[in-house]
Amino acid sequence: PFEVELHRSGRTVRVAAGQSVLAAVREEVPYVAYSCEQGFCGTCQQRVLEGEIDHRDELLTEDERGDSMLICVSRCRGERLVLDL
Ligand code: FES
């Protein structure tokens, strides 16, 4: 489990083991964009302001991985991520 802070919304959500970041974020931001939920389409890409990302997709380039993630599949290596959301 880890926490995701939504910088622009001023909210923090907790992501349980077995739950996606997308699912947790949707509880606070119901309009967040997504489609495939499997790391293929890129619709759910979000900018990451802080935290160490555990990338689990095969879509983003190394450059994109520096400061963004696909929230439907990727997770956090530490205890906290901050998204620009
Ligand atoms: Fe398609 Fe996340 S919803 S990559």
From TrEMBL:
Name of this chain's protein: Oxidoreductase
Included stretch of the parent chain: 274 to 358 of 358
Highest classification ranks of the organism: Bacteria, Bacillati, Actinomycetota, Actinomycetes, Kitasatosporales
UniProt domain 2Fe-2S ferredoxin-type: residue ranges: 2-85
Superkingdom, natural source: Bacteria
